[in-house]
Automatic annotation (TrEMBL):
<keyword id="KW-0028">Amino-acid biosynthesis</keyword>
<dbReference type="GO" id="GO:0009089">
    <property type="term" value="P:lysine biosynthetic process via diaminopimelate"/>
</dbReference>
<dbReference type="GO" id="GO:0008837">
    <property type="term" value="F:diaminopimelate epimerase activity"/>
</dbReference>
<feature type="active site" description="Proton donor">
    <location>
        <position position="91"/>
    </location>
</feature>
<comment type="pathway">
    <text>Amino-acid biosynthesis; L-lysine biosynthesis via DAP pathway; DL-2,6-diaminopimelate from LL-2,6-diaminopimelate: step 1/1.</text>
</comment>
<feature type="binding site">
    <location>
        <position position="173"/>
    </location>
    <ligand>
        <name>substrate</name>
    </ligand>
</feature>
<feature type="site" description="Could be important to modulate the pK values of the two catalytic cysteine residues">
    <location>
        <position position="234"/>
    </location>
</feature>
<dbReference type="GO" id="GO:0005829">
    <property type="term" value="C:cytosol"/>
</dbReference>
<feature type="binding site">
    <location>
        <begin position="244"/>
        <end position="245"/>
    </location>
    <ligand>
        <name>substrate</name>
    </ligand>
</feature>
<feature type="binding site">
    <location>
        <position position="15"/>
    </location>
    <ligand>
        <name>substrate</name>
    </ligand>
</feature>
<protein>
    <recommendedName>
        <fullName>Diaminopimelate epimerase</fullName>
        <ecNumber>5.1.1.7</ecNumber>
    </recommendedName>
</protein>
<dbReference type="Pfam" id="PF01678">
    <property type="entry name" value="DAP_epimerase"/>
</dbReference>
<comment type="function">
    <text>Catalyzes the stereoinversion of LL-2,6-diaminopimelate (L,L-DAP) to meso-diaminopimelate (meso-DAP), a precursor of L-lysine and an essential component of the bacterial peptidoglycan.</text>
</comment>
<feature type="binding site">
    <location>
        <position position="82"/>
    </location>
    <ligand>
        <name>substrate</name>
    </ligand>
</feature>
<feature type="binding site">
    <location>
        <begin position="92"/>
        <end position="93"/>
    </location>
    <ligand>
        <name>substrate</name>
    </ligand>
</feature>
<feature type="active site">
    <location>
        <position position="91"/>
    </location>
</feature>
<keyword id="KW-0457">Lysine biosynthesis</keyword>
Length: 296
């Protein structure tokens, strides 16, 4: 077995993970082990597995990626795997979950923590508890974003009548965001969607993508604030209660459609804050340690 006997269950607004530290670089998981750990019936259950390791102990990283971590003073890397065993470039909620774990286990200290990911180094800042966002709140500097043409994709759900127009956003991983009440969508309301079934995006992208469905709930143009509700089907694990990069992609799309930079978005797992500028996105939300588990 290439995973340690002791692992920890975590979640960040319901996006749940099995995590463990590997400071000696001995426990890189196999796809079968990831699928076992994340199985909700025969394993522990999770949307992904996160190994906290030193960058040079992550076998798929290029020398350039390892050098980026070292040159920026980043000691720890988030080696994230989707529930189906595939590698993932980035997971915004996962960064908060593994950072809380790193603080709890003594691998991180101070107010800010540099964390390597396959989408570059991210900086997380520990904040006070927030009445709306919850306990153990972290702000993640998610970095640069890239957006395609607005509404360039057709989004459908097999077995569900109707369609919506979607916008491509690259957050280090690919997303297509569909805003449902913009006059172009004929899909059911956000709450009524069947997201167990994987959405279909046309034209087909070169790589599989996460798909977000969004409803705008309120806008205050003078204050530059908006609220919205989102659901997401994530590649590699299906519908999840929250998706950090998906929330960022959603806010980028809503900004392009409305001119509003700051969004509070409700997902099935909780509430998060997203702040968008021309150069980057910041994601703020809570994280939770559920418990330690000893594998037999």
């Amino acid at each position: 077995m290439s995973i340690p006997q002791q692992v920890t269950k975590t979640h960040a607004t319901g996006n749940d993970f099995v995590v463990y530290a590997d400071p000696e670089g001995r426990f890189e998981p196999t796809p079968d082990e990831v699928r076992f750990l994340d199985d909700r019936h025969f394993g522990i259950g999770g949307d992904g597995v996160i190994r906290l390791a030193h960058p040079e102990d992550v076998s798929d990283l290029t020398p350039e990626q390892v050098a980026e971590c070292r040159e920026s003073g980043t000691e720890w890397f988030m080696d994230y795997r989707n529930a189906d065993g595939s590698l993932a470039q980035m997971c915004g909620n996962g960064t908060r979950a593994i950072t809380l774990f790193a603080y709890d286990r003594g691998y991180a200290s101070g107010d800010a923590f540099r964390l390597g990911t396959r989408a570059g180094v991210k900086i997380l800042t520990s904040l006070d508890d927030d009445e709306r966002l919850g306990h153990n709140v972290f702000r993640v500097e998610m970095g640069a974003w890239k957006r395609g043409e607005l509404d360039a994709f057709d989004v459908t759900i097999p077995g569900t009548p109707g369609s919506a127009r979607g916008t491509y956003v690259d957050m280090g991983n690919p997303h297509v965001v569909a805003v449902l009440e913009d006059g172009k969508a004929t899909l059911p309301a956000v709450e009524d969607l069947d997201l167990v079934t994987k959405p279909v995006v046309a034209p087909v992208l070169e790589s599989d993508q996460n798909v977000e469905f969004v409803r705008i709930d309120s806008m205050d143009a003078e204050a530059g604030e908006g609220t919205a509700t989102m659901r997401v089907n994530e590649r590699g694990c299906g519908e999840t209660l929250s998706c950090g990069t998906g929330l960022c992609a959603t806010a980028v799309t809503l900004r392009a459609k409305t001119g509003i930079d700051h969004w509070t978005i409700t997902v099935r797992g909780g509430v998060l804050r997203i702040d968008v500028s021309d150069t980057d996105v910041k994601l703020t939300g809570s994280a939770t340690l559920v418990g330690d588990i000893t594998l037999l």
